[in-house]
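dude i think i finally got it to work??
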Amino acid sequence: MIYRLYEWIVLSGIEVLPLYLCFLITEDDLRAAPDKLEEVVGWCREVNQHLKDRRAGSSDSDRERVIRGVTFHISTPDPENILPFLPSLRAISGHARLTLHLVDHSESAGEGMEVEIAIGKSGRDEIVTCIRTMAEEGLSPEDIDEKTFERYLTFRYTPDLVIKTGGYHLTDFLIWQSVYSELFFSDVNWNLFRKIDFFRALRDYQARVRKFGK
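look at this
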């Protein structure tokens, strides 16, 4: 009961949400808690609905300033190790618009908030692929700028908040896109990551954004 009350108090203090989130987890994290991704998506939907309800009398644009997309990066030395967990990952499409990236294969299903799962993807490889594709299409150096480059990226949005559980080691995923992202490191391991830990990450993000605004 006390935990629920504390959870509600933290949630009630959240007014500013990141539009896009990114979670960095490992293969071992997924093995320990394969259903946690679907649970986190549910938390995002809950926070969104909570803010929409609180902003019921506001303009449509204010009510829609909620979490629009979530990406989960699963680092693994061999993407085939993730194959047994695909049914759990695909279950997310029952609650959101899921795009699953596995090696060179991508698939999409469902409706709602955008959720992307990138398995074994490397930011360096993504950049190399962009350069190779532009070269194959015959783009000249003077035709290439940041906007041109970003059109060739697989993941074309900038995460406002990147969350890493269980330590402080980052991967090179979204190495281009996340250069200005806020980072949140949780000492809690992925399988023990709770809704209240997620709310704390959002509250921390809100405090940073407001401080920057001043």
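The longest helix spans residues 36-54.
im so relieved honestly
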